[in-house]
Amino acid sequence: MKNSQIKTPTLAVAIIPLTVLVIFLALTIHLFGGDAIAGGSQLSLLAASAVCTALAIGIYRTKWQTLEDAIVTNMRSATPAIIILLLIGAIAGTWMASGIIPTLIYYGLKILHPSIFLPASCVICAVISLLTGSSWTTIATIGVALMGIGRALGFSDGWIAGAIISGAYFGDKISLMSDTTVLASSTAEVPLFTHIKYMLFTTTPSLIIALVVFVIAGLSGSTTSLADTLAIEQSLQNTFNISAWLLIVPLVTGILIARKLPAIITLFASAFMAAIAMVVAQPDIILQIAQADASSFLTSFKAIISAATTSTSIQTDNDLLNTLIATRGMGGMMDTVWLIICAMSFGGVMYGSGMLSALSQIFLRMARRTVSVVGSTVGSGLFFNLATGDQYISIILTGNLFRQLYSERDLEPRLLSRSVEDSATVTSVLIPWNSCGMTQSTVLGVATMTYMPYCIFNIVSPIMSIVVAALGWKIYKRSQNHE
To answer: DSSP secondary-structure letter at 474?
Structure first.
């Protein structure tokens, strides 16, 4: 088919698949709540994909091969995330059974007072994510431990996850080693250090606001008494061999991340080290998981495989602790894996059919003054996170879409790169069907809609980006050549 014969989808048609998706997801979440990820959300995404495909082929004569190629391209970009997600499941199981997370919880209960727990969790995750450049790894390791500590202290899941995610995404956003930071700066053609320094004008106030909220919430959020905390500590000692030596595994994991080893290699090495620690430090746990009476090579092998791949419930003399230390392994990630596959299918057909491009024209038409240009960029980043289900695609599409417009309006490219990060990077975790939202919900064991209102940094960041633009603070024309 010649290019001149290909019709561009109209806005009225392009919005239909997105409307179908929103309606289906709203009904699914209303009916199934947190269980929507077990199948309802996936079917909603496939239904919306089918509607998009039918419209593209039926009205605009788009070739199926074009749509299939777009889906395959999307799937290819999601493959590393799926492997990482499965390895995170293995880490969750092996770190728990080896006593690493119980040890972190035990010492955390002694060190972190309830009144400072939420802001401290935010700061801890921010520092680790800043040093490692990975919000995913931070949340999957220290974040999981902090979830256990927070629950033991009596905080609600939403507040704990909100503090963890807020800190992790702050650090990820301004880290030199963050892939999203590098991607946003390179897409907008801005030097990395220039991009990071300019982000501080919106990122720092957003974090301060988040910490103030977490301080206030922490003063009244804990419902667990000292007796309950001591009971959990005693149960941990009775069940696991608590030892500071076990913290060597997370320490080495941090070193591997700092040395910029690929995430898949680092996570696999971390799970492997935890498996060794499990055999050395927790012989009783191995017998319990393997349901065996005597130790042997096969018993240890069975326990390691079970902890890494399947649901594992380690029994203690404390009901709350039983809930805290239950894990699902790699198998527990499968709902998220096929949700990612379905989300990538929807994003692929929307992109391949041209409907995503048609929808993006809404934001370009809204961009007139500087504040509306920034507002449109922020809105575009959020929209692409909703429509494509992937933050990397959202960063690339938003940056490419607005790069020429910023040039025409004589606006600095660093304003574009910052606006992209303030929206596409931080809002991805707030969307249930986005790969980030799905992953963090699964890793932390908290539904996206449950933690979303408490991710203060992620909510404030896009708003702060628009506010700073409206105030004109450090907003210059490119011709002014300001630093």
So the answer is: T
Q: Determine the Cα–Cα distance for residues 420 and 462; give it in Å rounded to an integer.
A: 9
CA angle 462/465/469 to nearest 5° reads 150
- Our measurement of the distance from residue 141's CA atom to the centroid of its chain's CA atoms, rounded to an integer in Å, reads 13
* Residue 475 maps to a domain: yes
Does residue 183 sit in the same domain as residue 312? yes
Same domain for 301 and 347, yes or no, is no
Full domain range(s) for residue 175: 80-331
**For the chain, how long is the longest CA-to-CA vector?**
77
Indicate if 299 and 173 belong to the same structural domain.
Answer: yes
Q: Quick check: is 454 in a domain?
A: no
Q: Please tell me the total count of domains within the chain.
A: 2
Check whether residue 57 and residue 86 sit in a common domain: no
CA atoms within 13 A on the CB side of 179: 14
Rounded distance, CA 250 to CA 107, Å?
14
Residue 5, CA atoms < 13 Å, CB-side half-sphere? 5
C-alpha distance from residue 3 to each of 58, 62, 71, 117, 351 (Å): 17, 11, 21, 59, 17
pLDDT tens digits for range 58-97: 888 889 999 999 888 878 867 776 787 788 788 878 888 8
What residue type is assigned to position 127 of the chain?
A: V
Q: How far apart are the first and last CA of the chain?
A: 49
Using CA atoms, how far apart are residues 386 and 109, in angstroms rounded to an integer? Answer: 38
Mean pLDDT of 191-197: 83
Are the CB atoms for 52 and 353 separated by under 8 Å?
Answer: yes
Q: Do the Cβ atoms of 103 and 243 come closer than 8 Å? A: yes
Q: Are residues 357 and 327 in the same domain?
A: no
Cα separation, 457 vs 209, whole angstroms: 7
Same domain, 424 and 355: yes
Domain termination residue (choose one: 331, 362, 394): 331
> What does the block give as tokens for 123?
């700061």
- Single residue among 307, 331, 355 that ends a domain in this structure: 331
Q: For 32-61, b where at least 16 C-beta lie within 10 A, e where not — what string?
A: eeeebbeebbbebbbbbbebbbebbeeebe
DSSP string, 140-161: IIIIHHHHHHHHHHT--HHHHH
pLDDT in tens, 435-465: 788 888 888 889 898 999 999 999 999 999 9
pTM of the predicted model, to two decimals? 0.68
Verify that 149 and 293 share a domain, yes or no: yes
Verify that 176 and 41 share a domain, yes or no: no
The pair of structure tokens assigned to 273 is 């080290």
